[in-house]
Known about the structure:
The chain is α+β, with helices and mostly antiparallel strands. The chain is built from 34 helices and 29 strands.
Amino acid sequence: MSTEENPAAAPRSLAEALRGRDDVSLAALLRSRPDLITPVPTDLTQLATRAGTRASVVRALERLDRFTLQAAQALAVASDPATYGELLGLMAGDDGDPAVSAALPHALGTLREQALVWGGEDRLRLVRTARELLAPSPQHPSPTGLGPTVREAAAGMSPGRIQEIVATAGLPSTHDSVSALEALAGLFSDPERMSALLDQAPSESVEVLERLVWGPPYGQVTADPAPRLRWLLDRGLLLPTAPGTVVLPREVALRLRAGRAHRTTEPVPPAVEAAAAHPPRIVDATAAGQAYTALATVEELLKDWHEGGPAVLRAGGLSVRDLKRTAVALDVPEPVAAFWVELAYAAGLLASDGEADERYAATPAYDEWLERPAGERWARLVTAWLAATRTPGVVGERDAKDRTLSALGPGLDRSAAPEVRHRVLALLAGLPEGAAPDGESLLARLRWERPPRVVRTGGGAPSPYARRTPAQPAEGARGAAARAETPGYAEDGRSGAGGEDDLRSRLARWTLAEAEMLGVTGRGALSSHGRALIGAPAPRHAEAEAEPTGPGDKLPVHHRQAPAPPVLSPAEQATAAAAAARLLEPLLPEPLDHVLLQADLTAVAPGPLQRPLADMLGVLADVESKGGATVYRFTPGSVRRALDAGRSAADLHAFLAAHSRTPVPQPLAYLIDDVARRHGHLRVGAASSYVRCDDDAVLNEILADKRAAGLGLRRLAPTVLAARTDPAALLEGLRAMGFAPAAESAEGDVLIARADAYRTPPRTPPAPVPDGPPVPDDTLLAAAVRAVRAGDLASTAPRRPVGGEAAGSAPGELPRTSAADTLATLQAAVLTNDTVWIGYVNAEGAASQRVIAPIRVEGGFVTAYDHTADEVRTYPLHRITGVAELAD
């Protein structure tokens, strides 16, 4: 039995309570609060001190579920120390609540595990910093809506006034104020006497108490209070705390609340309800289609940026204009375009080139990604999405400096995003297979698991709720109670509890939409490859396979939530992603090797095309429409583009004949031959540039055309025109006039214009911004626990004075001995295999205490097994301040 459970050995401090824990319990503490292990504490006293710091306590409170946080808030208004029965009464009330009684031991165990509560069940103590954060005060009312105790509220009152209140309340007078206040508190806490007192109260006075009972407990009165207020003031049911301000004492409020610290306790998490159910095979097929669309969208995005994408803004990121252009090119809304751009960036497929004229482009990893099977390419995208902290949903919003947040720019990281994504998918995995969740119930569950941020606002002014007259509240009792749950607290820079639009709720909504676009879910339900992606087990109940009568039918009953899948390590996540890819691969459509040519100069691809076919068709024709079937249109410009890429008319005819399930239409054959016949008839080179043609009539036509005025053409010879513009501009100008010129080299050969695939230098994907220190693995936890135990042994082991010179007697003081005594004691310890205590100062001047078992002493060094570090180390003798033997 631990000291926390044994009244005979009750701990006197948090450090003693931690000292009574076993290694498993200490490891659980460090796992749940990883900030305590960075760096590893030297001993348990330092661990307890660190666990009580404000930043660490706030971080721990923010990660409690709603019921556990309510338990901590109840302890903050209970006596210090409190008994388990008192805590249960505050949580369940006088009438009791079986659900609260069943859930409270687990909540208290969580508070104990995280070192927020210590002591036995008869002496429960909330860590002092947590009590300061959660306890009520005039500046910071309690989240429970309770005010100060009678003793705290009457601290500034005169003894005579206290005796008057006691007498008016019907209590015998006492000799001192302390006993008078205790008698008054006893009256308010006694149900029978309190009921008798309230039976005498005017109905208007009772209405005032009802307005204040659920908080805020402060109100304002005039110098001459109304009779309904005077009756309450004379009996101590309202006590003055400042001129013109009164408060409802905690004992009175608790009695009026029937002992409850909260208006509503939530011991059981709200269930995630299923809004609709679909056959699992339909879910998987829909998700697979979305997954293929995701791959095609990323390919289309980066293909559009093959020759170098948009320029990088000076402050970083894409401009609004470039994002709009990208959205038009992908045929999606701008927020969706921002998501695809950020996804490619997170997966390492897109980056800036780092040049002076910095632009975005595909990375070399993109070419490697293209060669992978479709399932593996999808797995890389979703793995990057799960771990990314960059949140495209905030693109277009403004930061703290009122600057617009841009896609691929700074300021998009939200460290809670990975945890929310994993949790949302885990809750979906808890539903029956094929079930889509009700969005509001999902958000309610997330808000229960992680209530809005509990960070007390600064400033010393009284709460604005204290400026209300009790007789005339600013809002009804229901609204006041709702506001009183967290008065004086702020969430993400906004006052109040955050409501529907807090960050975690927005992240959850974005997760549902993004999972659907990526094919992790289908029709809102988690797919089989989505389950594998997060390591969730397959559904165990066969009834989950039953098909509903319609795709939108409501499920008739609540379903028990399956256990949440564990948070995976990077290696486990890679294994899970590979398993998900194997499940997805058979569901993806097989690429086709043919198209259907039509007489209206279009080609229809009835499905996804093989990459060589799609690449060639993308050069020879323009995409006219997308969807389940892609429509390509052949134009003179598109055919000329294929000829510029080095293809001949014969090559194009052979290509179309080989890949069309229908005969090549005659109009398309005529178009290819007509463009090919004129292609290269004109030759453009560098003079600045020139045009040459064997047919001088064509050159005469060009010179006579008014559209050629801007090209600065002049005749050099019957078959040659010179121009002031560069060859590229001359090519574009002549093509705009309806000609089909071809570029030529200095040797007179036709240049083949191939689209250059511009790539950035090798780039690493953006590193996620962690939400605090990472959770340590089991190996690190075991080593940390050993180090803390050894350090604690070194700091608490009894010492014995050496050689007539006392070792340090003050706690934490290093032993001090002469050099001769130090050497002699260490040499003797080598011979006797004893363990000794030394003081050591390292090269940086940091002092520490160590318990060592010397192995040898030679050459000015001592080699010893260091129990503190749990390893063999060598120490210079001149850095040892002193040595002392350990007591038996």
